[in-house]
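New to this. Explain the following:
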Amino acid sequence: MTKTILVVDDSISIRQVVGMTLKGAGFHVLEAVDGKDALSKCTGDKIHLVISDVNMPNMDGITFVTELKKLAAYRFTPVIMLTTEGAEEKKQAGKAAGAKAWVVKPFKPDQMLDAVNKLILP
């Protein structure tokens, strides 16, 4: 069974690069442009992992993760924050919201896949 990953980023180029990396590794990829759009796609279908940017319009990544974790179907869905933010307080906020990993852009595809494969749910 193909695992589904939701990629949330307001940058189309980042979504494309992450999407190609994941599709190349055999994953099914859903895309969202911000936290609000991402939540609208969390309708109860199985999502095995979420990769989210932090700084986005409408709803930022940390707010999105906080809201996502309130949904019973996604309470245990692992989240990787993919961001240009390296600030410790942002990382702590991400962790408090429920993020399991923090990958700083620009990322290496191998590094991204390592994090994905460590965290993805069976």
About this structure: The helical segments are 12-24, 35-41, 61-68, 88-97, 109-119. The beta strands are 4-8, 28-32, 49-52, 79-83, 101-104.
